[in-house]
Specification:
By secondary structure, the protein is α+β, with helices and mostly antiparallel strands. About 15% of the residues lie in helices and about 35% in strands.
């Protein structure tokens, strides 16, 4: 049958007398709940950017390569006249009207871990800016860029600690260089870390089933109100594309890291010198903790604040500044977000008896 397809001839359509087709040209009733998210997205989309990294190709190299270079891939910087070869693609979000942009560290670094010499930010209105990388943080995979703009559209951060499983979210970015794209889903899980194998020292991901693909990295995860709830960073996939397991850095962690990077170029994190392991439910029940999270101290580093405050291996930490926590990862993140010199109150159980101690936070070595 297939060999006969080459003989197909498409004839002009013939008018059918007396037949009329009706149209309903009214706009969608966007006031109806759940009918459309277009108005909300139209407010946030101008703050979402496409990010490209590139390397400058010297004229001598161009002359030497001659016709062997793919001219469809090279770019020309109209301001400097430089010839650029694109090396990477990602997304980002403007978070301040003076041109501060957040994205993933892995979007703007090269294989040797150095920062790309040329980072180009393209806005929705097609304006392009050379960006300066103010700082990158390997511990969280966050980078802050600066472009020379004023009164730019920008996104406001949500309080990610208030996110709940089931909340509607939207992922925005430039997947596979297809152009700015919006996908939707829900918050599938919170506090994902460790088992995801992403390799960052500080992981606290929001998991979502909104489609995230290569090129979405650094783009925003938006909540129902149009606020920046997270930064799309990674996926789990056996195919290289979305299978509904996407991971986003939560807004509150972004704000903490980005503030340090924008103002000082590095992240200052707290350290007290302990390592811990989660307490099992059976062990927590024996200590009358019920389902509350608790951490057994597995290591106390000599000479650091925790040791000086009297904490020992085997102590069970149950609260930080009077607040409970879910697990070791949450406790570790909370300590890391404190500044050197701050004093923490740690509630713990030793040999069945409750106690507390105050620990002065030290500075953690820089994560590169």
């Amino acid at each position: 049958m297939l060999r006969h397809l080459t003989a197909l001839v498409f004839l002009p359509a013939m008018a059918l007398a007396g037949v009329n087709f009706e149209s309903d040209v009214r706009p969608i009733n966007r006031v109806a709940p759940g009918a459309s998210y277009a108005d909300m997205l139209s407010r946030i989309m101008p703050a979402v950017v496409s990010i490209r990294t590139a390397e400058v190709i010297p004229q001598s190299v161009l002359n030497r390569l001659g016709g062997r270079i793919d001219k469809d891939r090279i770019l020309k910087d109209e301001k400097t006249g430089e010839t650029l070869m694109p090396t990477g693609l990602g997304s980002g979000t403007i978070v301040h009207p003076d041109g501060y942009v957040i994205t993933n560290r892995h979007v703007v670094i090269k294989q040797d871990r150095s920062v790309s010499e040329t980072v180009i930010v393209q806005l929705q209105d097609r304006r392009e800016f050379r960006a300066k990388v103010l700082g990158v943080d390997a511990g969280s995979d966050i980078a802050v860029l600066k472009i020379e703009g004023r009164n730019l559209p920008f996104a406001k951060f949500a309080d990610s600690d208030k996110a709940r499983v089931g909340d509607v979210v939207f992922a925005i970015g430039n997947p596979l260089d297809a152009g700015m794209t919006v996908t939707s889903g829900i918050v599938s899980a919170l506090g994902r870390a460790g088992k995801q194998g992403m390799g960052m020292a500080f992981e606290d991901f929001i998991q979502t089933d909104a489609a995230i693909n290569p090129g979405n990295s650094g783009g925003p995860l938006i909540d129902f109100e149009g606020r920046l709830l997270g930064m799309n960073t990674a996926i789990k996939s056996g195919t290289g594309g979305s299978i509904g397991l996407g991971y986003s850095i939560p807004a509150n962690l972004i704000v903490s890291v980005a503030t340090d990077l924008a103002n000082g170029g590095k992240v200052v994190r707290g350290l007290i010198g302990v390592q811990g392991e989660d307490l099992s439910l059976a062990e927590a029940t024996k200590l009358n903790l019920g389902k509350a999270g608790a951490v057994r101290v597995s290591l106390v580093s000599e000479g650091l604040p925790a040791a000086k405050a009297g904490l020992r291996i085997g102590d069970v930490i149950v609260a930080l500044d009077g607040k409970p926590f879910e697990n070791w990862n949450e406790l570790r993140l909370a300590i890391s977000r404190r500044k050197p010199g701050e004093v923490l109150t740690i509630n713990f159980i030793r040999e069945g008896r409750g106690s507390l101690t105050r620990v002065t936070v030290a500075e953690r070595a820089l994560d590169r």
